[in-house]
Amino acid sequence: xxxxxxxxxxxxxxxxxxxxxxxxxxxxxxxxxxxxxxxxxxxxxxxxxxxxxxxxxxxxxxxxxxxxxxxxxxxxxxxxxxxxxxxxxxxxxxxxxxxxxxxxxxxxxxxxxxxxxxxxxxxxxxxxxxxxxxxxxxxxxxxxxxxxxxxxxxxxxxxxxxxxxxxxxxxxxxxxxxxxxxxxxxxxxxxxxxxxxxxxxxxxxxxxxxxxxxxxxxxxxxxxxxxxxxxxxxxxxxxxxxxxxxxxxxxxxxxxxxxxxxxxxxxxxxxxxxxxxxxxxxxxxxxxxxxxxxxxxxxxxxxxxxxxxxxxxxxxxxxxxxxxxxxxxxxxxxxxxxxxxxxxxxxxxxxxxxxxxxxxxxxxxxxxxxxxxxxxxxxxxxxxxxxxxxxxxxxxxxxxxxxxxxxxxxxxxxxxxxxxxxxxxxxxxxxxxxxxxxxxxx
RNA sequence: GCGGGGAUGGCCCAGUGGUACGGCGGCAGCCUGCUAAGCUGUUUCUCUAUGAGAGCGAGGGUUCGAAUCCCUCUCCCCGCGCCA
Length: 442
Fold this sequence. Notes:
Elements: H1 4-9, H2 11-20, H3 26-64, H4 70-103, E1 122-127, E2 130-133, H5 137-143, E3 150-153, H6 160-166, E4 170-171, H7 172-178, E5 185-186, H8 189-206, E6 211-213, E7 218-219, H9 221-227, H10 230-233, E8 246-247, H11 252-257, E9 263-264, E10 271-280, E11 299-309, H12 314-331, E12 336-340, E13 352-360, E14 365-374, H13 378-383, E15 386-389, E16 392-395, E17 397-405, H14 406-416, E18 424-426, H15 432-435, E19 439-441
Parallel strand pairs: 2-3, 6-10, 9-15
Antiparallel strand pairs: 1-12, 4-5, 7-8, 10-11, 11-17, 12-13, 13-14, 14-17, 15-16, 18-19
Helix pairs in contact: 3-4
The protein binds one RNA strand through α3 and α4.
């Protein structure tokens, strides 16, 4: 959540940020209305409580002198009634106010392009040499900076669904039978390739100063609520029946929540953590999109980068984690572009977000495989994670980025590195030490 | 799942109904010809702030007054049971 003091001090910054996000400023008005009420009420309550405390003390003295305190007791009881009344009122006001406060989004960084739909995201750069089917050439050129490198191909590459099924690497129908749509069985060398991707990513991040953490795959409501915007996220989460537990949708959440309510030493920062876990997503509202194959699924494995740092360093770290994810894609020889996500598409937590979109030649599109966000102090404030300084404890900053989401990268490998005749998939050189093979065929 | 013990400020710890003791650490200052020893103050959150309120794992209850008594829950430790 945002800083209430900052909101009171500089309301205009929040009104402007909300406008950039094309959001209604009504909640801001509502907040100030409720906050004023709350503060007025608080003053009244505190005054009454002071009176009560004084009287209580008087009773204590009276009893010690063997006097009769019943008259004062009566007065305190009356005071208590007033206080109870005001406090229940105050409880309601506070919960209304805090509910509104949680919907007020983070302040957007000045470098974020201001616009509504994702068609206006700013392309930062393109890297690699994409295989582009003739019919997609125009689309590709419009989606990349001028003179971006490519190889034109005469035939559209085979879709990952057909290819992986043909090579006996996935079984979607049977997964549908036992679990439903958007599940999959991975088979044979594709399993090993997935494990290779994960092992490679873990080594990759270890070498770059990350601690590797496998977190709980479930979180309780309170942790989930403080690490993300649960009200808008709820539909995406699986809930465990009869328990206060949710399956995680990303290890960002258990990793962020790990340091909830803690105070870190300045020397501990920055903290680089790589989370490794499966991710469970209901993908509610995704009907009709990517219904086939393993591109958009209810369960996938992911290695996530997470940074806890001082506020003055968070913008450098956004470039660092984006850089790590880019280097990972480059090392796999995947062609990609980096996109600066526009204001209207950011989540309430985000001050800025980059996506890495890999070129998928069979789909003829760039598709998101990495999301790198700076949440500044927004997430850390509701998690109450601070660090000690000479001038008191301050809220830290948090950032996160995908390193690798395995299913999407497996699709990318299938589409980008398939043999022209569909007889197999070439494994990128850096993965070979992890797979033990350099080619997958039937 | 059963039985026993526990949770107090950044950390340690005292406190069995009268408004949280003491220590350590941090910060500021004093003293001292050095970074020793010592002394003083301070240390969390909230508010319209020379003042006041809250805060003893969480939430309720009893009471004029609860860290303390009662109820429910969470987590940790020890033992038993179960278990890959």
